[in-house]
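Below is a complete specimen:
___
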Amino acid sequence: MTVISARRTGALLLRQYYLIRGSVARLVPLFIWVTIDMVLWGFITKYLNTISGAGIDFVPRLLGAVLLWDFFTRVMQGVTLAFFEDVWSRNFLNLFASPLSIAEYVTGLMLSTIATSAIGLVVMLVLAVVVFGLSFFAFGIALLPFLLTLFLFGIALGIVACAMVLRLGPAAEWFVWPIPGLISPFVGVFYPLSTLPRWMQWVGYTMPPTYVFEGMRAIVAGGQGSGPLLLWSVILATAYLGAAGWLFARVYRHAVRTGLITRYSAETLT
């Protein structure tokens, strides 16, 4: 059984803190993009409310979906950006020449993501509630499994993206950024899953965010979110997280065994 050292894991978290504290370029993206999204979509929803004659309030339907999806995206990118700091600085050999284990490294990525995604979530909540009047009381206790599911799945996809770059090389970074956009049509962020072709629906059912957005729409429409489906979404996201951790460890062992990890060493620079 792997024992995770709180001291070594905390050191990774402290390293990220010093990186962010010492660079405005790293601090501003934690909240600027979510601010832009919330302001843009907030005014779009207010405009739709003024021109719609159906008496539908678009704020919880669209702005709520944007908030949840941005939270998921920030979580995933929080993992990958912390990983890319080591890619860009070619620091892997320095890290793993220490007693640091792969489990401690992944745990450090997760902890740093909790901190960075929390900043973005607070900014989004303040803007949505104070400026655009989005009320989360309608979601009730269901908001907690919503956020938990998106957080776990975001962490899982972030770890998978890190494994992809570790296996294919730094140039594979450009495969990472489109991932949230590629899966968004399948999980029905802005529309019911029934809108999609059957094959896309089946793909959507394999992804935890699908149950979050279907539950959100059910609650906004005056119904109730399905407890069993929300529980299933958390279980499914947890399974994805476990599989992602296994994949990253396997790719890391392959990179060490074959010498691929040396491509992340400053000693390889010419």
